[in-house]
Predict the structure.
Amino acid sequence: MSKIVPVILSGGSGKRLWPLSREEYPKQYLSLLGDNTMLQETILRLSGLNNLADPIIICNSGHRFLVAEQCQQIGVKNPTILLEPVGRNTAPAIAAAALQSLKDLDDSTLLVLSADHVILDINAFHHAINIASQQAQSGKLVTFGIVPTEANTDYGYIRSSKDNYNGGYKVENFVEKPDLKTAEFYLKQGNYLWNSGMFVFQAQTLIDELTLHAPNIVRLVISAVNNAMQDLDFIRLDDQAFKSSPSESIDYALMEKSDNVMVVPLDAQWSDIGSWSALYGIGKKDNQGNVIKGDVVTQDTTNTYINADHHMVATIGVDNLIIIDTPDATFIATQDKSQEVKNIVKSMKVSGRYEGNAHRKVYRPWGWYDSIESGEFFQVKRLHVKPGAKLSLQMHHKRAEHWVVVSGMATVTNGEQKFNLNKGESTYISIGVKHSLENTTSQSLEIIEVQSGTYLSEDDIVRFEDIYGRVDSKKNSQC
């Protein structure tokens, strides 16, 4: 059998899980159910499959260091990380992964997964993958159809034939999200499955079929892959070619048009965690039907999901709520209205509020910073620098900075001087002076940074040297 190459789609912003999930740190990089993030769980649940190759992970440029670090944390040493210059839906992304795999392997079976799904029955999942792989070996395009547990109106459906072909069923057609009456009809029929958005096919079969049904996508993605640039451990797809590709889902571009599609039923306690109510539904509940995470005190509270990752949250006499507390935003909704949070995120973007896009704590390849306090002409940040990490050699046009070491030892470049600072020591960096901060020790370094000036936004950075390759643009601080 050919190698199974996991292709993990790790784009998306997870707006319906705000305020924990935000554009710069979306749900697939969060630990929502256990110790591992959703991306990590997606990779780890494949352990035990035969002929498994290193994964191809597709994400946007701003998340590249998150992906690399989370892979490293679980011992995935050689992932291929493809960077999309812009989101173009799933068809171009999957095509790029297929073409990239064909560069490395003459014969590969792609297992296309989303980074933000939950699958609890791993044995059933592996069994379905093995069936799908056999179907793919015979030249079929295979999708997984979730065995429905209710008349759900949030998913598209797949209508399959009733004839079993070695565990697979011929797809008769894909149908859009139904109304409740139609969903109830589907449930009674027995041959309607939820569309999971997970697939298995041979890489070359995919390209051949896409060439037939969506030639413009294939032509432009071939150019994007052939003209891709290596950037440290990442592969940047060619900007112009990829942006020119039509933005289409793999369902619309191929699966709905091909007569070569099979579906494998999957009954493995699957969820796409598309809302807070969905996360509540699969969470471990206490005697009052509550799902509690964090520092929470309850009284006469029932059927409620509470996530308190920063402050203590106390409730009395509430029922059927979603309560999410973060350092800079608190969200409260009834279970049936919680999906409408995406409208709040949209309104925040329109009004220019940062809370819809980023957390107060912002992750960088060297560690993270937390914006503790700010005013018109000042900002206070807490910087956490990982062992062996280094901030870029940079300068600012409109702000000065004062650094105070609170733990660890800092190696500082301040103008022409380079020196060490220990706990309790500090240095002042004037406007326009080149500076850098490095942690050369095996312990974490923490700094309190006080900024002062007329303009304090993150785009006032000019980088001169950077070990993370972020000097292509003088205003590249968001990467």
Summary: Residues 272 and 303 are 21 Å apart (CA to CA). The first helix runs from residue 38 to 44.
